[in-house]
């Protein structure tokens, strides 16, 4: 199951990067104009708040778009700082989502939904919970869903935090690098 999810996530990543590079080449001037306009209106704090919401709650907005905003705006001059802050904000959001999952785990409907799975697979969850969070942290799969589920399934908080810090922050740097250098890889 883990191998299948990794393969699907890798394919989704390749598709996402290819799509972004293609759009970036075709609409480079428009993207620069639009991202600069967004940064001028909401600033980096606004971007960080968007990430906090999208990585805490389950939304259809992929947070990686914020990396494009940084890459194609004046923020790119200090990208290591901004990307690092977004990584930390993402981890905070994930832990907030974990807390929401823990809270939801107390409701009867949640116990019915996850209880049987949790009871039947408790040893598996405890043994591989760290790696499940890692998969959610590094792939395009919704990180918020991963953290909520970890909370509902009572994976220990320090397991979720360590997987998030060790893999989510480097993943954000890696995705930024892929988005900014992929054009040269394809051309």
TrEMBL record:
It comes from the Bacteria. InterPro entries: DedA_domain, VTT_dom. Keywords: Membrane, Transmembrane, Transmembrane helix. It comes from Nitrincola nitratireducens. Residues 78-177 form the VTT domain. This is VTT domain-containing protein. One of its GO terms (cellular component) is plasma membrane. The chain crosses the membrane at residues 6-27, 39-61, 81-104, 125-143, 155-178.
């Amino acid at each position: 199951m883990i191998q299948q999810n990794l393969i699907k996530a890798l394919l989704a990543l390749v598709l996402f990067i290819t799509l972004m590079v293609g759009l970036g080449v075709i609409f480079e001037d428009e993207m620069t104009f639009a991202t600069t306009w967004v940064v001028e209106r909401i600033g980096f704090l606004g971007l960080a708040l968007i990430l906090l919401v999208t990585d805490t709650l389950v939304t259809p907005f992929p947070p990686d778009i914020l990396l494009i905003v940084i890459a194609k705006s004046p923020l790119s001059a200090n990208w290591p700082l901004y990307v690092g802050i977004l990584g930390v904000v993402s981890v905070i959001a994930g832990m907030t989502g974990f807390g929401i999952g823990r809270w939801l785990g107390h409701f009867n409907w949640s116990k019915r939904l996850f209880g049987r799975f949790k009871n039947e697979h408790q040893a598996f969850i405890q043994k591989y919970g760290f790696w499940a969070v890692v998969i959610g942290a590094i792939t395009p799969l919704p990180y918020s869903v991963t953290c909520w589920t970890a909370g509902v399934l009572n994976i220990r908080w320090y397991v979720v935090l360590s997987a998030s810090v060790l893999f989510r922050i480097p993943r954000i740097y890696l995705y930024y690098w892929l988005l900014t250098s992929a054009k040269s890889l394809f051309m």
